[in-house]
Amino acid sequence: MQVSVETTSVLERQMTITVPAERIESDVNKRVQQAARTQRLDGFRPGKVPMKVAKQRFGAGIRQDVISEVLQQSFYEAVQQEKITPAGGPQIEFKNDKDGEDFQFVATFEVYPEVTLADFSAVEIDKQSSEVKDADLEQMIDTLRKQQANWTEVEHASVDGDRLKIDFEGFIDGEAFEGGKAEGMDLVLGSNSMIPGFEDALVGAKAGDEVEVKATFPEDYHAENLKGKEASFNVKVLTVSTPELPELNEEFFGKFGIEAADLESFKVEVRSNMEREMKNALKMKLKDQVFTQLVDLNGIEVPSALVDSEIDNLRKQAVQRFGGGAEIDPNMLPKEMFEDQAKRRVTVGLLVQEVIKANEIKADDARVRSTIEEMASTYQEPQEVIDWYYSNDEMLNQVKSLVLEDLVIEHLLASAKVSDSVVAYEDAIKPAQQ
């Protein structure tokens, strides 16, 4: 077998592989002989089909099977021989597959980038910490009560906290714009779910009122065509409802899966959940900060095959997240929606693997177990959850990957310039800005 490799770009390789005709013909003849012995043909006794007849009858199909198998085997042997690791399957182009001649094909594929990690010691990291104060706890309980509020329609003018049912249509420079119209939408005043100025303009409105609302879209609004634009909305108020907050009793506590006999016990559980949420949010922001610096410091090309694979994963996750079933094809979602995120994930993954390899980082059993125990502690039967993880190789490997990721973060922080800062609980739980 002859192999030649051409570098066509930073990551792309073209490998030309030539397989001697004898290898193909030998395999074809063996299988034709086997077919002559085992296949039944009209006019011939079992096992007595002449080779010439068997070749005429089965030869073409057998040859295609042999070529397919030889192609896979020879490609595998070639990358082993050349010490190349493909980052995805190859594109195959046949150069010669004529009967009796050497079989030749070209495999085009990408390889993993060569990574030389940059020094992380000059990187500056802001490590945030926080605490749940009594005022944060009271605000959370107030929020939980509002979530369970009973709404009663009223005739009086709306105030902050009331819920309005509205129809509206928006215009920019006198023209209606896409996504600027809704009917029968519920809006709680003060929820800040609409653009700045919209909710404020509806304070004091009554059922049946028609209000013209002028508001400006923020400069960082998600729709490019609306950023910074001033809009006018024609709003019709259908109903105004005021909330009736539930009593803080066992029935209310039970709605959140908390078995508490009194308010103080309920507060203990809520504070514990808030602290866990805060800890995870701060951890995610620290991880995002470290990985962002790692990516910025190490500019690498990433294989498009890996990016495409990650885009497929993100598409599937998006469908699942928004409740789509088998009737929704993830491929309907535009590739461009996920391209930047996929590329960043692949880049981070490659760099993290290089940090692990360069520093021989391993996920020790004790760290894996403590991580699983911490995850299981939020369930009613922690031991059942622990046993489930250890009986499921896929889930156990996911935990090991998380532990490795944490160890990489710790390793990088050990060499970086880390400053500590204290932030309010509300700021702590906000997601990292991408």
From TrEMBL:
PROSITE patterns: FKBP_PPIASE
Superkingdom per UniProt: Bacteria
PPIase FKBP-type domain: residues covered: 161-246
A GO CC annotation given for this chain: cytoplasm
EC number per UniProt: 5.2.1.8
An annotated Gene Ontology molecular function: peptidyl-prolyl cis-trans isomerase activity
UniProt-annotated location(s): Cytoplasm
InterPro entries with a match to the protein in the record: PPIase_dom_sf (IPR046357), PPIase_FKBP_dom (IPR001179), Trig_fac (IPR005215), Trigger_fac_C (IPR008880), Trigger_fac_C_sf (IPR037041), Trigger_fac_ribosome-bd_bac (IPR008881), Trigger_fac_ribosome-bd_sf (IPR036611), Trigger_fact/SurA_dom_sf (IPR027304)
Reactions catalysed, as given in the entry: [protein]-peptidylproline (omega=180) = [protein]-peptidylproline (omega=0)
Keywords: Cell cycle, Cell division, Chaperone, Cytoplasm, Isomerase, Rotamase
Pfam assignment, any one: FKBP_C
An example Gene Ontology biological process: cell division
Cited function: Involved in protein export. Acts as a chaperone by maintaining the newly synthesized protein in an open conformation. Functions as a peptidyl-prolyl cis-trans isomerase.
Domain comment in the entry: Consists of 3 domains; the N-terminus binds the ribosome, the middle domain has PPIase activity, while the C-terminus has intrinsic chaperone activity on its own.
Family statement: Belongs to the FKBP-type PPIase family. Tig subfamily.
Database matches in PANTHER family: TRIGGER FACTOR CHAPERONE AND PEPTIDYL-PROLYL CIS/TRANS ISOMERASE, TRIGGER FACTOR-LIKE PROTEIN TIG, CHLOROPLASTIC
Name of this chain's protein: Trigger factor
Higher taxonomy: Bacteria, Pseudomonadati, Pseudomonadota, Gammaproteobacteria, Oceanospirillales
